[in-house]
Design goal:
single chain; alpha/beta; Dehydroquinate synthase-like, alpha domain; two-stranded antiparallel sheet; 15 helices; binds 5,6-dihydroxy-NADP; binds zinc ion; methylglyoxal reductase (NADPH) (acetol producing) activity; butanol dehydrogenase (NAD+) activity; ADH_Fe/GldA
């Protein structure tokens, strides 16, 4: 195990009606709130009305930023920064999935920065003194509710870039699984795929002897297997929604990387390039790329790790590591497909037109990955293998 500092300061309020305990958390930071949300799902499922009543009762001044899109745009971030400055906002409350939360993190970073918020995405500025944010999660997927990362898209340049800073971790997050009852089959399947993909990214390092993070990762993968299809078939199954919600949060709050290298992340970087150009659902892009990436990087040196997952998670009993690894990859592909996810880029009407550009942009900061370093040509081969 490598050295590490355990530090995950986000307070979690988990369970039914936990929103009722949120006001003291808000009041710690003040009484002027930016309420940010997406395209209206929170109005349909009643959460918006609950919040408005709560804020009125507690004398909270509220400014709204609505319409934050999936694959959130820098234009929403700029508007949020403007609103926070104009109304002297104390705290940003993100109500939604990863897109709303990510946009709010970028807004939080931008408010006390003199330049344009896109600068954070291109490494031109470092986050300093961000506004505090809190979240109410409505979709189990990204883990953004308990981490310091954000991914923002730029319509003009067709870029999608990650940023991150420990100070952007939400101060608190409300995780009420009943809010996810209204998530449709597609987004539920994409969310489960994203959770599993985060676990894969963190699992696939060259480190050996890291039994604790490996075993935790395997338990979270099994949770996705146990409950992913249940949540799709029975959207109001509390047990399934609750287990998936907590799995999604734990998958990317740092817990799985303590004591080892911080993960591979090549697949995510490749998927972001697909989303940047084609605006696809993040989880759907991952469902296509992950099995192809696994087949591409698998070799005799790292087969033990693939085989370990195949045996511990997918019930493969094969003794030979390489054969077991291949059976595990097939099991992953089959599970994503049962979640309703696509398996080829052509399923999303994506052809080879932009592959060269995507490969180049994915490697803009250098080689990708950990378990095997990928160069531009490798990324191109993976994308071609996914067509
Ligand atoms: O906009 P509304 O109307 O709310 O509808 C949303 C949206 O259309 C809908 N939805 C959310 N909660 C719902 C609901 N519909 C019904 N009932 C509810 N309770 O779901 C759609 C997708 O929402 P979105 O927030 O985009 O999904 P997700 O949580 O999967 O977030 C994806 C974004 O997060 C980034 C992805 O790249 C993508 O941009 N990621 C962020 C990460 C992070 N910050 O740590 C890591 C991830 O790897 C990922 O890259
Ligand atoms: Zn992801």
């Amino acid at each position: 195990m490598r050295n590490f500092n355990y530090d995950i300061p986000t307070k979690i309020l988990f369970g039914k009606n936990k929103v009722e305990e949120m006001m003291p958390e808000i009041k710690t930071f003040g009484s002027r709130l930016l309420l940010a949300y997406g395209g209206g799902s929170i109005k349909k499922n009643g959460l918006y009305d609950t919040l408005v009543t709560l804020f009125k009762k507690n004398d909270i001044f509220v400014v709204e930023l609505s319409g934050i899109q999936p694959n959130p745009r820098i234009s929403s971030v700029r508007e949020g920064v403007r609103l926070c400055r104009a109304h002297k906002i104390d705290l940003i409350l993100a109500v939604g999935g990863g897109s709303v939360i990510d946009a709010c993190k970028a807004i939080a970073a931008g408010v006390n920065y003199k330049g344009d918020a896109w600068d954070f995405m291109i490494g031109k500025a470092q986050v300093e003194n961000p506004l505090p944010i809190g979240t109410i999660l409505t979709l189990a997927a990204t883990g953004s509710e308990m981490n310091g990362g954000a991914v923002i898209s730029n319509d003009e340049t067709l870029d999608k870039r990650p940023m991150g800073h420990p100070s952007l971790r939400p101060k608190f997050s409300v995780l009420d699984p009943t809010y996810t009852f209204s998530v449709n089959k597609w987004q539920t399947g994409a969310g489960v795929t994203d959770i599993m993909s985060h676990i894969f990214e963190l699992y696939y390092t060259t480190d050996k002897g890291v039994f604790v993070p490996d075993a935790m990762a395997e338990a979270l993968m099994k949770t996705c297997l146990q409950y992913g299809l249940v949540a799709i078939d029975e959207p109001e199954n509390y047990e399934a929604r609750a287990n998936l919600m907590w799995a999604g949060t734990l998958a990317l709050n740092g817990m799985l990387s303590f004591g080892k290298l911080p993960g591979d992340w090549a697949t995510h970087m490749i998927e972001h390039e697909i989303s940047a150009i084609y605006d696809v659902t993040h989880g759907a892009g991952l469902a296509i790329i992950f099995p192809v990436w696994m087949e591409y990087v698998l070799d005799a040196d790292n087969a033990w790790r693939f085989a370990q997952m195949a045996r511990n998670v997918w019930g493969v009993s094969e003794k030979d590591d390489l054969t077991a690894a291949r059976q595990g990859i097939e099991a992953v592909r089959d599970f994503f497909s049962r979640l309703g996810m696509p398996s080829r880029l052509s399923d999303l009407n994506i052809d080879g037109t932009h592959i060269a550009v995507m490969a180049k942009k994915a490697c803009v900061y250098g080689d990708l990955g950990n378990i095997k370093k990928l160069k531009i040509d490798d990324v191109r081969s993976i994308l071609e293998g996914a067509l």
